[in-house]
Each structure stands twice: as C-alpha cells, then as structure tokens.
Amino acid sequence: MSHFFHKPENALKRARELLSIPNVDAGVLKRTKHSALEILHDALIAKKNRTWQPTHEELMILYLDICLELQMGRVAKDGLHQYRNLCIQHNPASLETIIKHFVTQAERKLASAKKESNELNLLAAAKVDLDAAQTPEDVMLSTTTFEGSNDRTDREVVVPWLRFMWETYRTVLDILKSNSKLEPLYKSTAMQAFDFCVEYQRKIEFRRVCEIMRNHLSALQKHAAAPTSQSTRQMRSWEGFTLESVERLLEVRYRQLQVATDLELFSEAFRTIDDINNIMNLVEQTPRVELLVTYYEKLAQIFQVSKNHLFHAYALYKWYSLRVAGLQGLAGAQALQELPILVSEEQQKEMATRVVLAALSIPLLDFEASSSPLGDDDSSVAQVTDNSLSAAARDKNSRMAALLGFATTPTRANLLEDVAAAGLLSKASTAASEIFQRVELQEVDPLQIVKQLEPFLTTIRADPLAKTYVDGVERLVVRRVLFQLTRVYASVTIAHLRSIFVGLDVSYEEIETLIARSRSLSTVAHASAPSLSSMYRRNITQHGSNNAETSSADAVSSAQSRTKIRIDHVEQCIRFTDAVDLEANASQLTLLGERLSRAMSKVPANATASVAVRDEQKKKLFAATRARLQEQRSEMLARREVIERKKEELEKLQQEKVQSLEKKRQEFAQRRAEIERERLAQEARRREAEKKQKIQDEIKLKETRQMLDKLGHTDVSDLDLATIDKEKVLNEAKEKARKAKELAQQKLRENARRLDYIVRATREEEQPILQRQVAEAKTEALKRYEQESASKLKRAKDEHEHGLKEKTRLAPAIQVSTEFVKAHKARRIEEYKKASEEQKKKAMLERLSARVAHAKERYEEEQQRLREEEEEKERIRREEEAERERQRQLEVEEELRRQEEEEAEERRIAEEKEREERAQREREEEEKRVEQRSQGRFGSAGARGLTGSYRNRDDDRRGDDRDDGEWTHVNR
C-alpha cells in the first residue's frame, strides 16, 4: 500500500482514520501510530504541494502530538525542520503557533509524569506493612544500589520526559536561531529552558544550552563580519543586529546570568558576562538602565566569589552609580553628584557603605613589585607594577577592565579618588566614612589607630551586608601601622606589637606571615618618602599632568632608599634597620674564621710556660699580622674584582647560550613555516585544479541541458547527463525537433488559409452596415457642434460683464495691496540677512570644532604610539630578566640536589656504622652469656659435694671433634 498522499488533506484524513480505530490493544495501537506518523511525514516531505496551506498546520499539530506520545524527539525535530522550510516565507506565524503548541504539550507531559511518579510513590507507601520486616527483594536492592524506591520510580517515569523536554528546547532553539521575525519566540523558549534547569537543578543541561546559544551568536557575528555563500543561504531570514534584537539578546543573557548565580555556576556566569559585553559592543546605543544595573550587580557578585577585590569594588561603584543616580554614561564624579536620587535614603546609605568598604578592602597589590608604600596609591608606580606582570596576567586584567568599560586596567588610587570626589563618604554610614578618613586621608598614628577604629569595626561586623569586608579592612590597618612603625621606630618588641593590634580580629601568626611573605613589608620605603595622606590630598585636589609627573618622580626616588623589617625571635623584637645582605659577606666571614683558627693554634698548650715566652710569641704574631695586613687587603680587593669579572663572563656565556638557542628555535620555526606554506600551496593548487575540472564539467552539463531544452527535450530529470552518450541524445533531439517544426509549420499554413477565407467573408457582409453608421455619426456630430458653440459664446459674454464689475469694485484697494507687498518683502529680506549671518557663524564654529577635534585625535594617536613603543621595550626587558632568573633558579636547584645526595650518602654511612656496632655488641653479649653458663655448671657440681676429680680426657686428641671439650667424672 502506497503512503504517498500528495495532498495534505488526504494524508491528514487517513492518519485520523488510523488513530480512531476502536478496541485495539497497546501493541496494535503503537504500530497504528507509527503508520499514521509515517503517512504525515511523507506528506510533509512530498515534492508536490510545497506551497503552505492551512491544512499543513493541522497536519503538523497531529504529527507533533504523535511524536509526543511515542517520545520520538528526533522524528519531531526532522518534521519541524521540514515545516520551517515549507512555511517560513509565506506564513512565519504558523511556525510560531506550531512551536508554542509543541513546547506547551511537552511541558504538560513532563508535569503529568512528575505527578504520576508522586502518586505511584504514595500508592506504594500505602501498601507497605509498617510492622513487617523488609522483604528479601528490598534487602537485595538496598545492598546493590544507593537509590531508594522513590529514586527508581523517578528514573523510570520522570527521567525519560526530562530527556525529551531537553531535546525539545534544543530543537526549538536550533530552528529559531537565524530568523529575525521569530526572535521573540527564541527569547521566550530560552527563558523556559532556563526555568526548566532551575526547577529540576539540571546544571549540565544549563551549561549546554548556554554553549548552544553562544554558538548561535558566534555564527551570526561571523556572518555579519564576513558573509559567505553558504551562510547567506542559511541566514536569508536574518535581518542583522538591530536595536530590538540586541535588546532581546541582552534580556536573555541577563536571565542566564541570574540562573547561573542561582545554580552557583560562577564560571558559566563569568562567560555569560563576557557574552553580554560582546553583545553590548554590537550597537553603539547604551542598553536600558535596569539591564545595566543587573549586569553590574551580578558582575560584582562574581568578582567577590573569585576574590578579585579590585574589580569587585569597581563593579559595586558602577552599580551604585546606576542604581542611585540613574547614570547611563558614568561621566564622572561631578555628574554623579548632580543627578537626582532614585532610591530611598536608607538604601542609598547601605549601598554607599558597601562601595566604601569594598574600596578599602582592595589589597595593596603593588607591594610585591614596589619597594615603596606609595606604590599602593600612586598611579605611575601602579603602571610600573602592571608592566612587571606576566603577559597572561596583563591580558586577564585587560579583559576584566573591558567588562567594566575601561580601556586600561584601573587602579585602587583612582577608585578611592572617585569615591571621595563623588561624595560617597557623606552618604555612607558613619563607621565606614570614619575608617576611610582615618586610614586613607589622615596621618596614621600607629599606637592609637587600632583603638580609634575598634568601635567602628564592631559596628560594621553587626551589619550582615558589610561584615564580609571587615577582614580586608583589618589587613589594610595592619599594613598602614607597619609602614608608620618603619618611619618612627628602629625596633619594636613583639609584646608591644601584639598590644598595638589588640582589638583586631588578626592573630600575631597572621601578622608574622604577612611580614614574611610580603616583600613590600620586609623591604619598605625609608622615612624620607612622602606620606599617604599628602598623596591623597594632592591627587584629589589637583588633576594636572604636572602633578602626575611629580608624584611619579617622588615614588621612584623613594624607592631608592630601603629599610628591612626583620623578626628577631632571640631578642623577641622586630627590627627596622638598614638592609644588610649577609650572603654577600659569606667569604669574608669564612676567611675571618680561618685566621682565628690559625691564631688559636699558635697559642701554647702548656699552661706552665713562662709569661715572657708567651709575650714574645704574642709580639711576633702581632708583628706578622701587621706586616701582612696591607697585603691581605690588596688580595681581598683583587679577589672581589676577579669575582666580578667571572660573574660578567658567566652572564655573557649565558646570554650567548640563550641567543644561540633562540636562533636555533627561530630557524626551526622558519623551516617548519616554510614546509607548512609549501604544503598549503600544494593543497591549494590541488583544490584549484579540482575546482576548475568541476566547473568545466558543470559547464558541459549545463550546455547539454540548454541544448536539449532548445531542441524541445523537456523531460531531462530522468536522464543521467554525466554517463549517457551526449551526441546520440543530441542527434535524437535534433531529429525530433525538426519533425515537430515541420508539423507546426504545416498547421500554421492551414490555419492562415482558413483565417483568410473567414476575414474576407466577414468584410463583405459588414460593408453596408459600416457606411450607414458613418452617415449617422456625421449628422450627430454637426448638431452637437452647433449647440456647444452657442453655449460657449453665451458663457464668454457673461464672464466679461462680471469681470468689468469686479474691476470697478476693487480699484480703490490696488494702492493698499501694493504698499503691503513692499513692506512684507522688505521685512522678509531683513530676516533672511540675519538668518544668513547666523548660519555663517555656525558653520565657522563647526569647522573650528572639527579642526580642534582632528588635532586632538592626532595627538592621542601619537601618544598611543609612544605608549606602545614603551610597553614593547618593557616587555623585552622583562623577558630577559625572566630568563636570567630562570637560569639562576636552575643553578640553585642543582646545588640543592647535590647537597641532598651528600646528606643521603652520609646518612647511609652512619646507618651502616651503627649496624656494625650493634652486631659487635650482640657478639660480646653472647660470649658473656656462654661464659656465665659454663661457670654456673662448674659451681653447682662443687656445691653438691661430689667426691671425685675432674680431668680433661683426651683433650688434645679430641679437641678437633668437640667445640667446648668433654669433661668426665672419675671415682676414686
């Protein structure tokens, strides 16, 4: 039986008949549904009737209902693709209706399965005898699996529908990915998919749907940037990135960001943030304020989880700016102060407190690369620190800054300036503003600052939103106090240092770890460096480039004088003394020890020697020492020069080795690149040859097809033009065309002859009638002309008389109208002159503004070029330093390895010696025990009072056979 019902109404009717068969069992019903589904699918893919009809919509609904009942997701996907190709050009609304119906029915099926699972669990629980023991089946299941009965029921009933629901969302998103008219449906489907992931905690599926939509967006961006023939064909229904489409994409991504944070998938949330940033760059117009508020709020949450305190504080600051002031462009602190408030005073206070504390909690990241405390807050030193980072770290910071809308990496100092200038200190809580004032804007008193800040820190700990920043604020206070101690004291006892930090939730072990692990605290700026408070006052009140240069010069000069923080556990104190590199004096200390040892060896060991002899020896020793003093000093100086020269030679050899390796690497890379280019060229030539051959074959086939069409061979679809004999087919077609042409010419001649006879007879019959009609028409035309001439003459006379009367009536008003016209014309001329002058002035100002803008742009480009050159030089220098550091690290590792091997060998020798000594002791103890046993036997025999004598019998002869000798008793 054939299933090719070419008309959709016939296929729909047959499918309904199959589904309405009564009284069938489950197996027959399933086979019947499969048959009906096959009929509907054949009707969808039929080549005829490819124009959309309302019947197609009914057919598709029934098709999807059957797929839902049979849980055939792949078949439903194929049908939806076919229906999209069928109706996308004629009626896209029908596709939207079909997809909504499909998704709704799938969600109902899933809800019904979940309800059924719950009912089955309740029925099973109702049948359980609570007093009876477990059945053997339950015991076996409990020992072989961790699932309970409820989990097994869900896996059997709910999980298949969960899988089908997930396939449904993925299919719908794939169908709607490149259709501008159905973008609202794409958005709603994505939202439903997110709700599905949240409701059933499907984290893996959430990652997949995010990746699917990310791929869809990437495909659209690639097509917009460089369209190809294939992409143009696939995306013919896409109208580009309009403002409405970008707005929908942003709404979907913001919901995706919300779901990612709810599911605690912060890595996916960060990728979503990156997607949002890319979408924002698609259009120049700024998105809505509420979307930006959500964006920065979630971005701040992600940065807080990842412990990126700097960007977390900046995200909070932007969130505060948009939430409180409704600011879209973030044009600076001045605009932030002037715009109206959009939230309540209490909410504004809470948000300002969070921003201030987040800014204070930013770690002083520049410590590790700068020896000055000014490196924390000075932008120039911060730039040096940023340059010292690795390329990966700089790239990461640039990406983070781009997410916040910055062209360069922001600094802690800039944020503190913005916070202070925007007036957030007056809007924040008293505790937060006081901490900011005392730690950042005022001179820090290291002995009193902790006591002053303790009540404010207690207040902040009581705030559930602000208490997360207490730890960062306390660490900042510790660093500020230590900086001030280096400027005031030479040493501080550990007990006194503990008493200074009483009140902070920071243990002394953490403070000691902070000092030991931070080079910025173990090597800090000398007391001659300017204070932080002066730096902040200068940065806030002055913004000129001269001030920036001055602060940079101060930071660099302050870095030249260094101070060490050293923990002395013997004396129980911390010393702030000048840095002394004891490792550089190791050889001098060794030499001093050797000389002292030789001097002590010359001291006489005999304590009874005379004083005169000892004095004489001392004089000789001192004289020899003074005689060789200058010589030894010269040797030491010469030795230092030799060491320096050898060090330079070693560095030169290392540089030459690095250059040689780099040269070999470049040669290898160049050779590999040449081989790859040659391979690509050969591949390109091969593809070009194949392409040309394919084009030639297509041209020949096209010419053959055109020739057959011209010759009248209309049925070309059943011929394989690539394999048949083209000459034979062309000859047959030509002969067939010739016969057809002759037959058509013969029919044409017969038709022409018959037409001539008919026309001649018709004209002979119609001649008298035409003559009579001409005579009647001539009479009627003459009569009509006479009537029209008489009426026209009468109208002309009447109009002339009326005109003369009007002229007489309006003659007095001619002078007044003339004067009015002159005055109006003069007034219009004056207005024109004024407007012309204003237009000229405006054009002149516009030209001047354009010239200034062009000059400014050229200046900025030149500055950018100079910055890039400086960055390239700095990058080369850092790479060279890194290579030298790596070589030094290898040498240190080799030395450590050698020392470990020597220590292992020494331990092995000591263990062997200890084993030998232990074996010797055991042998001695054994001999002692043997001797004691022998003495014990002899003593016991004498005690019994035996009368006899003991003698050794045959001791000399039998000594070789017995180990200890044989003793015998002889009676007297």
UniProtKB/TrEMBL annotation:
Residues 786-810, 855-972 are annotated as: Disordered. Residues 786-809, 855-934, 951-972 have a biased composition (Basic and acidic residues). GO terms for molecular function: mRNA binding; translation initiation factor activity. Residues 626-754 form a coiled coil. Pfam families: eIF3a_PCI_TPR-like. The keyword Protein biosynthesis applies. One of its GO terms (biological process) is formation of cytoplasmic translation initiation complex. InterPro entries: EIF3A (IPR027512), eIF3a_PCI_TPR-like (IPR054711). Keywords: Coiled coil, Cytoplasm, Initiation factor, Protein biosynthesis. GO terms for cellular component: eukaryotic translation initiation factor 3 complex, eIF3e; eukaryotic translation initiation factor 3 complex, eIF3m; multi-eIF complex. Residues 9-441 form the eIF3a PCI domain. This is Eukaryotic translation initiation factor 3 subunit A.
